[in-house]
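Notes from hallway chat w/ T.B., transcribed later so I don't forget. T.B. wanted the structure written out for a chain they're using in a teaching module, and asked if we could keep both sequence and structure tokens in one place. Agreed to drop them here.
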Amino acid sequence: MDGARCVEGPSFRFCANVGIGRAVVPGGGVEPIIAYQGRVYSLGSWGYSDVREVMLEYSPEDVELLAKMVSSSDRGLPLEAVRLLAPVEKPSKLLFVGLNYRDHAAEVGREPPPVPDIFAKTPNVIVGPGDPVIVGPESSRLDAEVELAVVIGMPARSVTVEEAGESVWGYLVANDISERGEQLLSGASQWWRGKSHDTFAPVGPLIVPRSFVKLHEGAKLTLHVSGELLQSGSTASMIHSPYAIVSYASSYTLLEPGDIIATGTPAGVGHSRSPPRYLRHGDIVEACVEGIGCISNTIYFDCQKG
């Protein structure tokens, strides 16, 4: 990853100077935290109980002021020694976009959609770095997709593309897990069923302020499965920009602070390979986005029925 020095931690790599999220703090509690220059600081003692409160009080351009203030009076902890959780707890909306990379649309034989092809997952799917992705015994076509995800910081309804940027607080890495047999091969199109199993959306490692992620230069995305590179792409080949997606989604629903919108995946998904490369028990899936970092999760097949 380019830019800030990357910090390796338990099942994550963080590659930005500053970010906010959630972590297990000394004593076993869970609090919102801010990471700054390789160290992490609890925000609970500063009166914050949720990252949404931080995003509403500090703009992405100003949050480094909070980091400097907190770090001046607290030694913090090494980021690599902390267990990070999913940065947002129970967002009101978790939206994903299908076929938003030209190379991915081409590999599945589809024309680029004229508008964002948005679908929803339910909040039960969210897990953080290092959390297991738990799969039932009937699953045989499990797939993963690396995605850049937007995190909403200000309410947005019917905003223009130009206005959408003010509603986006930052970005994180998302992994869209799917059971392709249930999604596509069950006799009907079952996107919710195939994509909304518990644990089917790892996200993290932290929310990086929008001003720190240089999307206009094209951020690289990669997905490795047990060391094998399956996906390697760039946000430069997106069909609809993150701000265009936010604008489009806001024309149909109120977007609220903490909502997450994953913006699509590049080519290389396991389902589209010949032969297909589906996930197996014990596989370690690492999803990375340049300028943010990586999250790793292990696949566990629960063989007990009933």
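Follow-up for T.B.: The chain has two domains: 7-85, 94-301. Might be a good example for the class.
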